């Protein structure tokens, strides 16, 4: 979205998991975790351990994190909807 300049990122910085890993069973009761791929943005940016920062930071309340999702209480969704509506006026 950011790389193609087609929208606004709303929310919190992402975790930054930018790799794909697999676990190989060695057959003797141990295993080996191996990175088999890396994620890059369309512009070639490696996000591993950095994450992606939103254009508009809106935190998701801790009090809602363990509750069933309710879009009407989601401040990130509300802000994203507000931004989208303003872009189509």
General description of the model:
The protein is an alpha+beta fold and 89 residues long. The protein has one domain. 15% of the residues lie in helices and 21% in strands. It is built from one helix and four strands, in the order ββββα. The protein has one helix spanning 75-87, and strands spanning 10-11, 19-25, 31-38, 56-57. The strands form two sheets. It has a two-stranded parallel sheet. A hairpin with a 5-residue loop joins strand 2 (19-25) and strand 3. It is flat and about 60 Å long.
Q: Assign the structural class, choosing from mainly alpha, mainly beta, alpha/beta, alpha+beta, or little secondary structure.
A: alpha+beta
- Uncertain residue ranges: none
The amount of helix comes to 10-25%
The succession of helices and strands, N to C, reads: EEEEH
- The number of strands is 4
In spatial order, strands of the major sheet run 1-4
Which outline best applies? flat
N-to-C CA distance: 21 Å
Average of per-residue pLDDT values: 96
Structural topology:
Elements: E1 10-11, E2 19-25, E3 31-38, E4 56-57, H1 75-87
Parallel strand pairs: 1-4
Antiparallel strand pairs: 2-3
List keywords for this structure.
89 residues; two-stranded parallel sheet; 4 strands; 15% helix; 1 helix; alpha+beta
């Amino acid at each position: 979205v950011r790389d193609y300049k087609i929208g606004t990122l709303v929310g919190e910085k992402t975790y930054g998991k930018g790799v794909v890993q697999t676990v190989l069973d060695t057959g003797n009761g141990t295993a080996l975790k191996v990175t088999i791929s890396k994620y890059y943005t369309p512009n070639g940016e490696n996000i591993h351990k950095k994450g992606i920062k939103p254009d508009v930071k809106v935190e998701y309340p801790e009090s809602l994190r363990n509750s069933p999702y309710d879009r009407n209480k989601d401040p990130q969704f509300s802000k994203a909807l507000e931004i989208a509506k303003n872009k189509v006026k």
